[in-house]
Amino acid sequence: MIDKLAKLLFNRKLRSTTSKLETSKKFVDYNHAQSVLIVFESNYSEKNPEIKRIVESLVVDGKTVTVWGYVQKKQTLQSELLHYKMFCTSDFDFLQRPKEHIAGHIDALNVDLLLDLNTRDFLGVDYLLLSANARFKCGVRKNPPKLFDFTLDLSGHYPDDPKQEHENDYLNIYNQLIFYLKNIQSKDY
């Protein structure tokens, strides 16, 4: 019952937000993006070597990188660093909306490009994606699809069952997203 209510409230916010923003969206290719936000689901140990490699490659290319991770436990082990933040279940209310202190992180951040590397749905992370101040958002196709300006369809590659353990292939998703961002030609610039 609460899950249905949470999804209903999220869909209402999604409709109101997307109707306001649809006219101002422009494609941001990899070369023009100066700042990047990476959103991912962390493993329980919160050691994410693939994410560290992705961040290193972006920094080498001259990008300013901010990382938001989500781990499904009550507390995180990671201390809050300037450009690296781990969110946990206690950062969201019972309707899976971000709490007040998280809203401050969201409002303070402006990036050119948002890369969502998640393959599974979590309504709390979807709220973060919806509220993030990014000029261009891209990620793996999920429900609802209106969260992104560019989606990568990997349906069938990753199981949607949260009980089934699988290792997210962040490097593969990242490489595919970056490939398209580098090769799509746009007249927005």
Structure in words:
The chain has a six-stranded parallel sheet, sandwiched between helices. The model is unreliable at 163-167 (pLDDT under 50). 34% of the residues lie in helices and 19% in strands. The chain has a single domain, classed as Rossmann fold. It has five helices and six strands. Strand 1, helix 2 and strand 2 form a beta-alpha-beta unit. With 189 residues, it is an alpha/beta fold. It has helices at 2-21, 49-60, 100-108, 123-131, 170-183, and strands at residues 35-41, 64-70, 84-87, 110-116, 133-140, 150-152.
Largest sheet report: 6 strands, parallel
Spatial strand order of the main sheet? 3-2-1-4-5-6
Helical stretch tally = 5
- Domain count: 1
Shape: globular
Portion in beta strands: 15-25%
In short:
The chain is an alpha/beta fold and 189 residues long. The protein contains 5 helices and 6 strands. Residues 163-167 have low confidence and may be disordered.
Search tags:
single chain; Rossmann fold; 189 residues; six-stranded parallel β-sheet; alpha/beta; globular; 5 helices
Secondary-structure blueprint of this entry?
Elements: H1 2-21, E1 35-41, H2 49-60, E2 64-70, E3 84-87, H3 100-108, E4 110-116, H4 123-131, E5 133-140, E6 150-152, H5 170-183
